Amino acid sequence: MTETKPWYLSRTIWASLITVATALAGILGLPVEGLDNSALTDTLLQAVAAVAAVAGLVAILGRLSAKNRIG
Q1: pLDDT at 1
Q2: Spatial CA neighbour of 44 closest among 23, 13, 20
Q3: Is it the case that residue 13 has pLDDT exceeding 70?
Q4: d(CA 65, CA 15)
Q5: From the CB of residue 29, how many other CB atoms can be counted at a distance below 10 Å?
Q6: Its pTM surpasses 0.70
Q7: Contacts of 14 (CB under 8 A, 6+ apart)
Q8: Which residues contact 65 (CB under 8 A, 6 or more apart)?
C-alpha cells in the first residue's frame, strides 16, 4: 500500500464514523434498527467526493478570474 488519499475519501473512516453515530443515536433513543450502514457509507462517500469535485472547480475558476499573480 504505497498510494495515499485524503482521509475524507477513506471508506474505513466513514464506516467507523457511521458506526459511532448510529450507536450514539441508539443510546439517545432514535430509531436506527432498519438503517443499512453500508448503503449510508456509500452515499456519504459519494457526496463527499462530489463536494470535493465542486470545490476543485471553484478553486480553478477563482484562480482563473483572479486579478493578481501568485507570488
Answers
A1: 67
A2: 13
A3: yes
A4: 38
A5: 7
A6: no
A7: 41, 44, 45, 48
A8: none
Q: pLDDT (tens digit, 9 = 90+) per residue, 31-69?
A: 888 888 888 888 888 998 899 899 999 999 998 998 888
What CA–CA distance (Å, rounded) separates 16 from 22?
10
Per residue, the 3-state secondary structure of the chain, as one string, reads: CCCCCCHHHCHHHHHHHHHHHHHHHHHCCCCCCCCCHHHHHHHHHHHHHHHHHHHHHHHHHHHHCCCCCCC
> All 3 cell numbers of residue 43?
452515499
In angstroms, rounded to a whole number, what is the distance separating the alpha carbons of residues 47 and 39? 12
Degrees, nearest 5: CA angle 70-49-52: 20
